[in-house]
Amino acid sequence: MPNSGPFSPESIRIPNAIAIGNWARSGHSDSSTEAFRHWDEDGEIPATCATCHSGSGFRAFHGLDGSAPGNDQAVAVGGVVDCETCHSPGIAEVTEITLPSGVVHPVNGGEAACTTCHQGRAAGTTVAGAISGLEEDTVSADLGFINPHYNIGAATMLGGYGQVGYQYPGKTYSGRFLHAKPVATCVSCHDPHSLEITELTCLTCHQADDPMDIRISRTSYDGSGDVSKGISADIEANAEVLMEMIGEYAAEVAGTPIIYDGAHYPYFYADSNADGVVDQAEGRATRYASWTPRLLRAVYNWKVVTADPGIFVHNPHYALELLYDSIEDLSGPLGADMASMGLVR
Ligand code: HEC
Ligand code: HEC
Ligand code: HEC
Ligand code: HEC
Ligand code: HEC
Fold first, then answer.
1. Residues in CB range of 345: below 8 A, 6 or more apart
2. What residues contact residue 299 under an 8 Å CB cut-off, 6+ apart?
3. Among residues 72, 28, 32, which one has the least CA distance to residue 49?
């Protein structure tokens, strides 16, 4: 600061002003959201959650704060994804990330941070473990909804190799979506601070004003025959078909109609009398409890695909495969005719 005025504050250069401004507009800095406020009443964030929900938890997890790597301490509430999360000098030494599937994925400095937090909290193997040894269509009290968690773009991008989805035995799955070399990493499309996508990045190779309208595939995966719409529309359509079949299966095979309420965890509720209203017991919504292995894995895959709003870019083919296989799996006991639906895997 000058010793005396007059001076104009707007002419004083703030180092990193652009990065700070961009970050300040992004979700990473927004301390008002559920992703950072969820623990306010508890007063601290448990170690298992803090890795991704607070910069200080992240640093503790990777040992960037001088502690041994691994998280065993709760951290104070109030943190966000601060500058030091991605700019700690030690981050360059983080060379691999263990995914929920157990797959150990090699990363470079640029992606270590994103992959740590956007990998989700469950994998297809979590589901396979839960249903192992159980009869496909028999309700089991041991089963409960498994949530892949939220904004899991780093996991979906790794596809069949990262194994975030429930992968049906005997099927093969697309691996990491490498896209095209200049846009193969998170920050080649997302500004690391604003997190936004610059459309120009896409226009080099695609002709579409909106990423949702981009399509290269000449195959109509949803059976509509329309290959002028974006690939995102095929994914959306097949996700809807899967949700409808989940509803039919729950009512007809599992024996209890199901209701999905995206606004309230754990999202799936019982509707025993099929009146379209969630059952209530003692003033509380009744969680869905009639899970069969076949229902659990289909619901899990539906959630994986819809938990990543960018899956149509991050790994469109993996998404389509998970949806197709889940639909096919439910079609058996429902006696639905796959061929007449016209879907393509
Ligand atoms: C410490 C964990 C952490 C790291 C590291 C991290 N994120 Fe996030 N990210 C989050 C959380 C938590 C949210 C949700 C924020 C909210 O709801 O306000 C989020 C939100 C986002 C969003 C949604 C857009 C928005 O404005 O809400 C995008 C895109 C994103 N992150 C991309 C990235 C990329 C790319 C990287 C790596 C450069 C990265 N993230 C690194 C935890 C992290
Ligand atoms: C591997 C990283 C990771 C871990 C571990 C993690 N989360 Fe998250 N969580 C995220 C990301 C990323 C988001 C951002 C979603 C978004 O953009 O709103 C999120 C979002 C949330 C939300 C907001 C959901 C919504 O509907 O907006 C809640 C609540 C939440 N997490 C709870 C937890 C709890 C509780 C734990 C510990 C038991 C936990 N998380 C552990 C990464 C993680
Ligand atoms: C989610 C991770 C993440 C967070 C949080 C983050 N940065 Fe960055 N930052 C990066 C990455 C990755 C690059 C390298 C960009 C590239 O290679 O294109 C970068 C680059 C930079 C640069 C180099 C110039 C530029 O803009 O590309 C500056 C300066 C910078 N960051 C400052 C900050 C400041 C200040 C904050 C906090 C307000 C911050 N960063 C928060 C990931 C992050
Ligand atoms: C080829 C470009 C591309 C790459 C590479 C890419 N993304 Fe995305 N991502 C997108 C587009 C396009 C969207 C759609 C939403 C939008 O337009 O903001 C998106 C959406 C997201 C969202 C959800 C944003 C929201 O609105 O809630 C997150 C989180 C995210 N990406 C994280 C990542 C992470 C982490 C990586 C690296 C593992 C990554 N992305 C790699 C293009 C890309
Ligand atoms: C350097 C050229 C290039 C850039 C830049 C690029 N893409 Fe792509 N994109 C491709 C190629 C090539 C494919 C086909 C890849 C494949 O299927 O293996 C593709 C596939 C896609 C698909 C799947 C289409 C389908 O029908 O299967 C989507 C969606 C997509 N890109 C979105 C984006 C978005 C959004 C951006 C900008 C953030 C972007 N791309 C930037 C080259 C590019």
1. 221, 320, 321, 324, 325
2. 145, 246, 268
3. 72
Distance between CA atoms of 130 and 308, rounded to whole angstroms?
Answer: 23
Q: Cβ < 6 Å from ligand 2: which residues?
A: 27, 34-35, 38, 48-49, 51-53, 117-119, 121, 149-151
Cα 8 to Cα 5, 15, 18, 110: the distances in Å are 8, 17, 19, 37
Dump pLDDT digits (tens) for 39-77. 999 999 999 999 999 999 999 999 999 999 998 899 999
CA–centroid distance, 257 to ligand 4, in Å, is 34
CB-based pocket (< 6 A), ligand 1: 26-28, 30, 33, 35, 52-53, 58, 81, 85-86, 113-114, 116-118, 151, 186-187, 190, 192, 195
User: What is the 153 CA–ligand 4 centroid distance (Å)?
Assistant: 6
**Distance between CA atoms of residues 246 and 231, nearest Å:** 23
Q: Kindly state the greatest CA–CA separation across the chain.
A: 83
Interval 77-130: pLDDT, tens: 999 999 999 999 999 999 999 999 999 999 987 899 999 999 999 999 999 999
pLDDT in tens, 120-157: 999 999 999 999 999 999 999 999 999 999 999 999 99
| CA 326 vs CA 101, 176, 195, 249, 320: distances in Å | 19, 20, 32, 12, 10
